UniProtKB/TrEMBL annotation:
Keywords of the record: Dioxygenase, Iron, Metal-binding, Oxidoreductase
Annotated Homogentisate 1,2-dioxygenase N-terminal domain residues: 14-280
EC numbers: 1.13.11.5
CDD domains according to UniProt: cupin_HGO_N (cd07000)
Organism: Ammonicoccus fulvus
Protein name in UniProt: Homogentisate 1,2-dioxygenase
Keyword Iron: yes
Homogentisate 1,2-dioxygenase C-terminal domain: residues covered: 282-433
InterPro entries, sorted: HgmA_C (IPR046451), HgmA_N (IPR046452), Homogentis_dOase (IPR005708), RmlC-like_jellyroll (IPR014710), RmlC_Cupin_sf (IPR011051)
Name of encoding gene: hmgA
A GO molecular function held by the record: homogentisate 1,2-dioxygenase activity
Disordered: annotated segments: 1-20
Length: 435
């Protein structure tokens, strides 16, 4: 069964659409009319433009938001370096790039008192925010709501909860993100993550071009992720005149400044640089209705393109519940080697290429050119299966696919939750050759 996660009675309100220029005010009359920067903005607010692309980039790529806030953003003391915890940023060079196939169990529960940012554990990545290309992969486990406000100057954050509902309070409004939904925090936007329970999940940090919807090509004007299912929060603000620590990741390091107010004080805004939430249950899954297993690019939800046409810095791909009907077809993913690197996680259920060992909250990395595909048990089963229509129901896996080799962090390599003998899943694929 395909279900949408129920929203709570106090669910925040949203505007709909992908990449739209939204207009929203938490207090009627807070938005200036007819101009962005009047001599005196309404209600005594300060105007501020957030430019997320160069002023001069073409309209299709241009991103900016005008915010009208209680206190000016510029009024804060110096940022001071603080420890990076388990956050790492490219260039990734703690250990050598490793061609081996790697798999992890779920992260251990958070040490009590760990919030979302302290709970981030960088797995690896490539590129660097200093060159605006590449990405990092993080997992998180936290049990305590943030009191600090966080802002990432290095890239946008795609958050994929696996356990526990997140409440993400941003400068531009509030997002409610249960497992099964994803949220995107754009680069440079301040936010705080709260939750009432222990939470766990995955984060893709994208140093490159902002994630966008893929082209549909011959699919036509509909299908895959629909523009209207992306939800952007309405304006919301907190008016708190008290010390608030703002932690910023900049050039890979954490810096903190003690503000005398909450910077989540934007009363009205308009623009297209905004956070959003998307329910993966809304993804229209397309597949083969004749034969052969299609390339998983058909499951792309969002893509960050490089300047090379069709080559992604990051693709976010989802393996959602769907029917398999292919005739004379080996239905699970085939054996393959790929110039792209594939990091996979599991939000719920079972993934059709791995009979066991790939668990919710766990992850696998099949680096560039690594031989991988169905494990021996899956291969055995699918080669003998009677090919009646089959519904894959209890499943929600995803992939961060990226164009260059991923180098692990030392902590991801030595982690106790790394599985010691992942290669063994492909042993037992015996010789079946008959001349
Ligand atoms: O390796 C994987 O499990 C991901 C994957 C899935 C699929 O259906 C086809 C190719 C592919 O890399
Ligand atoms: Fe693969």
């Amino acid at each position: 069964m395909t279900t949408s996660s129920p929203e709570t009675p106090d669910s925040p309100d949203y505007l709909r659409g992908f990449g739209n220029h939204h207009v929203t005010e938490a207090i009627p009359g807070a938005l200036p009319q007819g101009r962005n920067s009047p001599q005196r903005p309404p209600l005594g607010l300060y105007a501020e433009q957030l430019s997320a692309t160069a002023f001069t980039q073409p309209r299709a790529a241009n991103r900016r938001t005008w915010a009208y806030r209680i206190r000016p953003s510029a009024a804060h003391p110096a940022f001071i370096r603080i420890p990076n915890g388990r956050l790492r940023t490219g260039p990734f060079n703690e250990i050598e790039p490793d061609p081996n196939r790697i798999r992890w169990d779920a992260m251990p529960p958070a040490t009590p008192g760990t919030d979302f940012v302290a709970g981030l554990f960088t797995v690896g990545g490539h590129g660097s925010p200093l060159t605006g290309m590449g990405m990092a992969i993080h997992t998180y486990a936290a049990d305590t709501s943030m009191t600090d406000v966080f802002v990432n100057a290095d890239g946008e954050l795609l958050i994929v909860p696996e356990q526990g509902r997140l409440r993400v309070l941003t400068e531009l409004g509030r997002l409610d993100v249960p497992p099964g939904q994803i949220c995107l925090i754009p680069r440079g936007l301040r936010f705080r993550v709260e939750h009432d329970e222990a939470v766990r999940g995955y984060v893709c940090e994208n140093y490159g071009a902002a994630l966008a919807l893929p082209e549909r090509g011959p699919i036509g004007a509909n299908g895959l992720a629909a523009e209207r299912d992306f939800r952007v929060p309405v304006a919301w603000f907190e008016d708190r005149e008290e010390p608030v620590r703002v932690v910023q990741k900049f050039g890979g390091n954490l810096w903190a400044a003690d503000y005398d107010h909450s910077p989540l004080d934007v009363v009205a805004w308009h623009g297209n640089h905004a956070p959003y939430v998307y329910d993966l249950a809304d993804f229209q899954v397309l597949g083969s209705i004749s034969f052969d297993h299609p390339d998983p690019s058909l499951f792309t939800v969002l893509t960050s393109q490089t300047p090379v046409p069709g080559l992604a810095n990051v693709d976010f791909v989802v393996f959602a519940p769907r029917w398999l009907v292919g005739e004379d077809t080996f239905r699970p993913p085939w054996f393959h080697r790929n110039v792209m690197a594939e990091y996979m996680g599991l939000i719920r259920g079972v993934y059709d290429a791995k009979a066991e060992g790939f668990v919710p909250g766990g992850a696998s990395l099949h680096n560039t050119w690594a031989s991988h595909g169905p494990d021996a048990a899956t291969h055995r089963g699918a080669s003998a299966a009677e090919l009646v229509p089959q519904k894959l129901d209890d499943t929600l896996a995803f992939m961060f696919e990226t164009n260059l080799p991923i180098t692990l962090t030392a902590q991801a390599w030595t982690a106790d939750h790394r599985q010691p003998d992942y290669d063994a899943v492909w042993s037992g694929l015996g010789r079946e050759f008959r001349a």
